[in-house]
Amino acid sequence: MKALVIDDEEDVRFVAQMSLGRVGQMTVVVATGGEEGVALAKAEQPDFILLDMMMPGMDGAATFRALRADAATATIPVVFLTAKAMAADVQRLIDLGAKGVVLKPFNPMTLPREITAILNP
Amino acid sequence: MTDRLLEELRLRFRETMAIRLRDMDTLLATLARDPANGDALATISRHFHAMVGLGATYGFPRISELGDEGEASSLILARSGSPVTPQLHARWCELVAAASGDLERGGTST
Fold first, then answer.
1. Which of A17, A58, A80, B93 gives 20 to 30 Å between its CA and that of A10?
2. Which of A104, A110, A114 to mutate to test the interface with B (most CBs of B within 10 A)?
3. What does the pLDDT read at residue B109?
4. Count of domains in chain B?
């Protein structure tokens, strides 16, 4: 399984990459922001995208809309990664087609299992 | 493998969070001189936000709690457009100092 992690925080990218790669045995590609993430999603065609909600510039909501607007990425499942305080905002995006939400802080030992459960309810 | 991975993550976090906390100290010094500095306020708010998301993820739950308090108060201030009050500045200094202490002690495993 191939994952694309989009997050502006290097420490989040690192722990997500280690968790999904080493615990979940996934191939992981990372992007530091929304624009790079959309481009990588087109090029890499990941099985899912783990997308941070709060990013400078193109934030998670705008990135999600850009992914959905492009036929090459429109059907890639998106799981939002967000702080508890923003979970209500993400619910609106789930209503628009996002697969689910992982709350930060998360447990790196169980993140792959949590995402698998979201992708295969 | 699990214990080894967790230890790797914690070691890295201690290094990167120490850098972040030093930057927060610098920002607090800026805000002490210029309480209305919007850039410094926005940056320290992002740091508090990062503490919330990263602390417990890396096995430092107290840092998440401290970041949560700092982020909430900084966001309220940013929305109001008010300068940082001396009381709030003092509290943020306490939060950063407490986070540094927790980092030095090695946090608490989740």
1. B93
2. A104
3. 44
4. 1
